[in-house]
What does this fold into?
Amino acid sequence: MKTPILKAAWLVLTPAVLVAAVITTLVAPWFRHRPDLGAAVLVVSIITTSIWMLLIWLALHRLVFQLAALWPPPSSSLSKPEAVKSVPRFGVFYTTCDDFVSESLLSCIRQDYPEDAFKVIVCDDSREPGNRASIDALCSGQERVTVVRRSERSGFKAGNLNHSFKLLQADAFDWIVVVDADQILSSEFLSRLAGDAAAAPEHAACIQAVPKWQEKSMLPPSGPFQQTMDEDACLVLNRDLPWRSHAGFYPCLGRVAAVRASAWNAVGGFPECVSEDYAFSMAARSKGWVCIPAGSASLCDRGPRDFAAFVIQLSKYASGTSELIRYGYFEFLRGPAHWVEKLDVSLWLAGYASMPLVLLNLPLSAWLAHVVWQQQLSLLPPGLASIFVGMTLLSFPVLVSVTDTIGGAMHRFFWTFAIYNAALPGAAVSFVRHFWKRPVFRRTPKGNHPASSVRTESCITVLVGMTFTGIAFGWHSPFSLLIGSVAAAQLLFPLFQHLHASSGTGAVARTLVWLPGIMFLTGVLDIWLRGSC
Amino acid sequence: MGKIFISYRRHGEGDIALLLAKALKAAFGEWRVIMDISHIKAGTDFWKSLADALNDTELVVVVLGPGWLNTVRENERLGQTDYMRSEITQALAMTHVKVVPVYVHDASMLLEKDLPDDLKQLAKNESLQIHEGKNKESDLKMVVNELGRSLEPEEIIIPVRLPHHQEDPSRRRGRSALFAAIFAWLALVAWREWLPPRPIDKVALHHLLYDNCWVTYDPSGKTLDSSRLPVYPPLSEMETDLQRIKAAGFSGILTTSSHLVMADVPRMARNLGLNVIMGVWDPADRAELERAIRQAPYVDAYCIGDAQAQQGLPVEILEQAVWLVKKRTGKPVAVSDLVKKYDDRLARSGDWLFPDAHLTLADNPDISRDVELLMQSTKTMAKLAQALDCPLIFKNVAYPHRGLKNFSDELQRDYFRQLLIKLNDAQDGHVTRTSIVAQEAFDAPWKVGGSFLPWDPFTGLLELDPVNGHVRAKPAVEEILRWYPHLKLRLPPE
It folds into this structure.
């Protein structure tokens, strides 16, 4: 299998070069001219500056790919699909684990595609009798549907998929389409995917459908929380990923991916871990395969239905990344992938790995800012402050492009700032904990299924929020508003659990969700205007 | 997906070939059917065009009329090129192409033995027929259906969709927003970093400089450490000093640096109702500049540099410091250096002229001589101030009350009296409005040795009574205050 040509490595290198330029032209001279404030200040300065530089690198890395995606990549990995000479045989693997959504399964069955060329396999890991009964009721009498169950649930979703694949001797299919329990396919999905499959290069192991938010109308109506989070998937797949098939590592992120059956066999199926999709991409790449975006097959994806579901999902991603770093990352680094892909993967994973660092860095920065401010000195060089302002401003065009309006972009910015920061402590703890302990799969609640409790996360987050509030007041400086904005989001954690609700509490939550973002923007401006000179 | 090539002779079978082509286009799409002649442009190589066309072809339909074989033989006899025969032989030679003879106009089927070697295969291939008469139309449909079956058996047409990478409006919106964001960012950075500082209010500056009675306040020398470096007193002591300066009738202070606790002096002075010109000792020291800028809310104007600190310092550093302080604070800024070094470039750097008028006095006191000495040394400054239309204030105007033989408090008083009369004399003075910052509030006993003159420690205008701890104003203070009728001495005179 040949390695794809990475024509635009500059996208991966640009942020690194920018950070190096910032360090040499702004940070190093700044350090040289600082008065001596003692060894403790020096040590903390070096630690916080290093963490900030890493965070800037990660943020710039993401921003560069997102901004590049405002222009279409030079050519798609796929040629324009027109027609295929033979009908690819699809096995649609609908995976569920007590989160069955009938609309989703029906959308898999009701495909405008030759009947003898696709089968739907319900990979059912459900334990609740009600769920099983619903699935059986819907599948009875459906000739094209097979329900597969197993006695034990090892290996999470990957174990479920691998079990079905083995059981069905899946070489009866050319491609396996993996569908999550709540994903809804359009009736043309398979016929479009057939065109994409025909045009895919031979070494494409996986074709990933791309969400199109213009087709949101086919989704069932949802609350304000889910509507905001619906755009998250669009943001990642339509803005973070498009250029990665040319200038980085294009991962499979579990958004209705079609996996070539021969690649499945060659790779040995999905690695049995929490982030099985990303792990599969890395394992496939290590064997010379690649993942590519679909040229025309699209889907409407659904974000987490409420804040609790989002917290569980983010914690799951964090623990999955932790597990991935331990078990798959270093093998990938030793593999045949291009160094640009390796760097891209490293920075992608570092996004989650940086969560505990952010939590550690906030109090350290607050203390340092306080000491420096007491000495009547600036917190940071003006050039660096201008870069922070610029990065904040430049994130808005990306949001405008996925939400269509400036108002929508503002809404998304303020909401996601608050809820991501509220979920940060739980995710950070999850990441750190699973460096030592293998993660236990937590199902993200979907549809009308009851959510697992996030009481532990709530307690931890409120405690962290209270600590940060104390720090913001005790170690006063222009940085206080920044740490205060994070603290405010964390203190609002219990209230955010009502963000989706139509009650009065929900309305209060939806009003207060703007507060942390407002504090953050005010803080950035304050540091820029007062804290740097 | 392969194409369908129709091979026929225009004379004889042209009509039926066109009918067949129309039916095939309706069934399989116009783009799939090739009619040889119409697709080969004039001037192009027939053989190459034919080869190219056959490469894309899946099915060649050979339309055979009753006289077709005779024409083949006739062309062979005359040695003429038979294009249709060439098409057929080439198609037969290509393994991926199916060749289907279609007999029209009631032509008889060809026999293998009648055909030349290169065409014998034609007789072996399965053929179709379109009869003349009432069955012609149904035959045509049948031929189209049969030909359809000859094509790839499992072919389906997939709806053509635009690839998601193609231009969509959301990308366009994002790009517009990106350009707007970049513009906004550059505008903000330009406003904060690149645009020149906003112009200062000249009238307010005149009032500030001329209507206040200024004195230098430098508490650094009250105590010295073992290395004879100045140690700043505690803040409470400095606050008491400032109260005494205020009580003496002065309405403004000039500080000498923004180092360490000196950064707190403007806030304390402002709280007491004093105006403040904040000094920056070393313009090359970024930390000192930052501390000075932080005090902007309590500061009325800044004085950047001191003759001693900036020896050998490039003037560009001084200009950058002025620019930075003005840009960040919006307050008036002047630079200071010795009169003899105060050139046009330095004068233009600030909002007013602030030359250091520190004199070297002779051993024996002579008030008239000493006043004239200052007037002479500052003459060029006045001309510069007039030319630039800037206020002119002399900094560090000092006269000792001790330190040299025969110097006294009275001599100090007389010096200030005569100097201020002279400076404010429209005929005899500098002809431009001029004021001074008297040096200094308190004696500086640490100014001993090195470049210091013997009388440098003894220029204080306020004196602490060692017995009762009260502060007394020296007589010179009253003389200075005389020029500020709205101010009044409130301390007991010495």
In short: The radius of gyration of chain B is 53 Å.
